[in-house]
Amino acid sequence: MVLDDTQMGNSVEFDVSPVVHEITKIVRAENALISMEEQLEKSGLSFEPEIVEKVLKRCFKVPHLAFRFFNWVKLREGFCYTTEIFNTMLYIGGEANEHGWVEKLLEEMEEKSCKKDIKTWTILISQYGKSKLIGKALEVFENMKKCGFETDTTAYSMVIRVLCNADKGDLAMEFYKEMVEKEMSLDLNLYKMLLNCVAKSGDNNAVHLVADNMTRVSEIPEQEVYGYVLKSLCISGRIKEALELIRDLKKKELSLDPRYFEILIKGLCRANRIADALEILDIMKRRRLVSEKVYEIIINGHLRRNDLSKALDLFQSMKESGYLPTASTYTDLMQRLFRLKEYKKGCDLYNEMMEKGVELDTVAIMAMVAGHVGQNHISEAWKVFNSMEERGIRPTRKAYLIFIKELGKVGRTDEIFRVLCEMKEAKIGIRDEIFRLVVSCMERSRETDNVEKVKQMRRISELCSLTEEVSDSGFKGQELLLDLGDKHLEYERTDCQQVHSLSNAFNKQDMEEVHRILSSSKDWTIIEEGLKRCNIKFTLELVLEILRKSSLHGKNALNFFSWVGKQAGYQHTSETYNMAIKISGCGKDFMNMRRLFYEMKRRGCLVSDAWTIMIMQYGRTGLTEIALRTFTEMKTNGFNPTASTYKYLIISLCGRKGRKVDEAVKIFQEMIRSGYTPDKELLEMYLGCLCEVGKLLEARNCTESLSKIGFSAPLSYSLYIRALCRAERLKEALEVLDDVRTEQSSLDQHVYGSLVHALLRKGLFEQALAKVDSMKQASIHPTVHVYTSLIVHFFKERQIRSALGIFAKMEKEGCQPTTITYSAMIHGYMNMGKVADAWNFFHHMKINGPEPDFKTYSMFINCLSKASKSEEAMKLLSEMRNSGIVPSTVNFRTVFHGLNREGKQCLAQTVLTQKSALKSERKCSTLI
């Protein structure tokens, strides 16, 4: 909405827009060399209250910068506080979910004798309500009355809206009755909200009272009101009352609007009473009241019950009766067919739509795109996607997001880049959620280089967005205003990362030089001298890369973080704080991790991602009790957990260390209710944990529910069967495989590696080979998983020649051995007492790849210590450090005990010293 100063209600004698623009430019696009405060001080610009208020309104999307500017400007000599400035700041603080800031602002408002006006109260009620702080919102309403403010329709409407959103129907009715007594009425939308809320609470008297007032007081037509009442009863699942209402209307001999039947059928389908819905469909047929919409509702009801055959039968009957299905009906059926791998039938429906001239919408087109991608028919998917423009449809951001999600599922990261480029060309802003999704997908595929490219793209995108926003053309006549008098105060909240002017790339030589300095000594004084001499200009990108590269030297990295934050022209952001918090957590320096978190809050940086990082760091070290407390604290502070938050917390609760299975189940269910889809890694961990502890019913229920959130039946059951195999529940796994009524060949393909592994572990060699042979007959060749399992089996049976034969066969067939395969070979040789051969394989890995990972090193250390070769295991501790892998406490303990057993006490003490030194290097007990 574009408003001028007159529309705002600000009567001005001169145009302040140029001054406001210049100040905003400084505040929002901080110069890399000179701090914002210094630039503002030297600018010579005017900072009248009206100008300050307008600048703050332009900064509501970047609350940390708004607060920083406010904290600077209020210290200026002669600065005059106004209620309007405080109102703007209260709104910004509330939108950022920083209720601590809000409380401090209210105290400051009191100190500066700024009187609250009606806008102040309504802002507070609205913001507390949005954060579900109902007690606070009601307290504000009462204080408003005590202070002598007239509680008008706007104030009452605000409170009722807050209470309805919190499902507090009884309280909402109390306030509504007060309104009625004062001869006030609600707008139509709020009436509908109140009806839905009281219907859900089961208060029929309240429903009828509201309905009567809608007709009598607000003069809404009776026919319309009955429709709203019927809809509210159906939405809240009160079908009995809905049917009674229809009977009452018939008794009153009121003509029944066809729309009533549609609403009732929808309610019956939602309540899983499709037989009743079909009866009403017959009545409607007899009265010739049927529409395409009614058929669509019942077909959708069948699909919700996973009854595709009945949905298709009704679909056919509908066409035979002369009704043309809507695009929505076709789309629902197509999506279900694609999920069940009925690709051809889904394509036939799409072609039928085009033949019959059904107008295609974005949803239908994207359903077909998803279907093609699911079959890896990428070129066909692009053809359908590009056909949107031919039909005059401009692809939306959501359409691009769906395309990216589907490509991520089949691992086509190359095509994801193409989608991002298309978005950029179409001038569609790429939001954080899309970047996060792409990064997550690439991290799962271990595509480190591509991850960095996407992060770079994200930074450039943010920079371009900021440049456009603060450019002359961007702001000319387009001030982003907060009309704080609007009765609903419903502005879109935008989570915005702190943005700096970033160069497109940093100087790699600078990064290497600083990293060399940080890793050159343990004495900070020497390091600091080196940093002062190097004369490098520090940018956000450069600092982030230095911190990432130096994370193993935690103490020096964190001292550098503190030092660079004090350098002129540089300012830490949420990104750098998050990296420092992560480094502290990795070094188990949880006290410093929390200190950094509170510091970033004080400095006005957004802390939403920091919560997730802290939960992850507590969880990964087994401190699940603290991770849970932090999760609760996060929600209490008004921050909604993201998919990553749920994922890391559930994974830590399912881990062996600090395992809390009941809490994991509860939080997994909360994650699904919140609309987040778990990824494959999380599902494997979660189902594996449930199977290990014997919670098979919960595991089965979880598996069966996955189809509702987009997983195919073969994939869902394959995850469950593989989890059972890993938990050594082979009998149950085979039973599930026999019972499942899904595409058997597809399921076999997913699970046969796990089954072969489980059979071999049980010593059922013949059955395992039979399984391999049966898959070969189905033209499915052994995977690396199968070959590795056979290698493990042959070494266990002390058949070295057979194990080597399998390894040679893998290489011959082009099946690349993985880290796990090499680890199996090393472990096998060690168990056979062939230490030299084990070392040969280890060196082969280091030279030719794949590089040994933490698990490989840990396994080798264990084997060497058991074989009384602890001195050799000790060398591996140093090798791990050189390879950028941090040895664990268990690694040090294993070598220490091994050396002591072998009578090498002096070396054992050296290991303890190394462990202490590592701990000291990673922990920052005193920051500079």
Provide an overview of this structure.
The protein is an all-alpha fold. Among the domains are: about 675-775, Serine Threonine Protein Phosphatase 5, Tetratricopeptide repeat (Alpha Horseshoe), CATH 1.25.40; about 780-850, Serine Threonine Protein Phosphatase 5, Tetratricopeptide repeat (Alpha Horseshoe); about 860-928. The longest helix is centred in the middle third of the chain and has 23 residues, at about 450-470. Residues about 1-15 and about 465-505 have low confidence and may be disordered.
Task: Say what the CATH topology of the domain at 677-773 is.
Answer: Serine Threonine Protein Phosphatase 5, Tetratricopeptide repeat
Q: What is the architecture of the domain at 677-773 at the second tier of CATH?
A: Alpha Horseshoe
**Classification by helices and strands:** mainly alpha
Overall shape: globular
Q: Which percent band covers the strand fraction? A: under 5%
The total count of strands amounts to 0
Largest sheet: none
According to CATH, what is the class of the domain at 677-773? Mainly Alpha
Mean pLDDT: 80
Radius of gyration: 33 Å
Low-pLDDT residue intervals, each spanning 5 or more residues? 1-13, 465-505
Oligomeric state as shown? single chain
**Distance between termini?**
48 Å
